[in-house]
Amino acid sequence: MLNGPNLNLLGTREPAIYGTTTLAQIEESLTACARSLGVELIAHQANSEGALIDTLHAWRGVAQGVVVNAGAYTHTSLALRDAFAATSLPFVEIHLSNIYAREPERRTSLLASAAIGVVCGLGADGYEFALRGLVSVLRARAARV
Ligand code: DQA
């Protein structure tokens, strides 16, 4: 699971939009979910674009897939989409809020066209839906080869 800028402040950050669940709580419940699915979860959060890209490079050959909330970089970062392409890491994009029901500048995702799928607007629970979807798609792909 990779989280981008300002998501370290979840819990107190604009709770009317993002809820009151902290990132630590999300990591804890996603770790439990991963265990129940028989997979291992690695979690990282960074506020800078370069650090997120460096993390994807480091996960190349280590992670099988990524649940990513890129925060505001979702709407701006071609470099992050390039990093997914360069590392061939399959990913599911997740947002706590429904970005399509917010300000116009949030309604475009530069990542979505390269994602397996997108979960948004379902709050912190969305991370679990994203992980379940990612694991399910990767297992189906692995069964086909
Ligand atoms: C977000 C939506 C983004 O527009 C925003 O910049 C965030 C959080 C979400 O989870 O709803 O930082 O990715």
What would your notes on this structure say?
This protein has 145 residues and is an alpha/beta fold. It has helices spanning 15-18, 23-37, 49-59, 78-87, 125-144; strands spanning 2-3, 44-45, 66-69, 91-95, 117-120. α2 (23-37) runs parallel beside α5 (125-144). The longest helix has 20 residues, at 125-144. The chain is globular and about 45 Å long. The model has no long low-confidence stretch (mean pLDDT 98). 1,3,4-trihydroxy-5-OXO-cyclohexanecarboxylic acid (DQA) binds at residues 6, 69, 71-72, 74, 95-97, 99, 106.
Question: Strands of the largest sheet, in order across it?
Answer: 2-1-3-4-5
Distance between the termini: 25 Å
Radius of gyration: 14 Å
Which structural class do you get from the secondary structure elements?
A: alpha/beta
Quick check: average pLDDT?
98
Strand content: 5-15%
Tell me the series of helices and strands, N- to C-terminal.
EHHEHEHEEH
Helix content: 40-55%
Question: DSSP helix count?
Answer: 5
Taken from the alpha-carbon principal axes, the silhouette is globular
Low-confidence stretches: none
Bound molecules: 1,3,4-trihydroxy-5-OXO-cyclohexanecarboxylic acid
Characterize the largest beta sheet: strand count, sense, and whether it forms a barrel.
Answer: 5 strands, parallel
- The strand count comes to 5
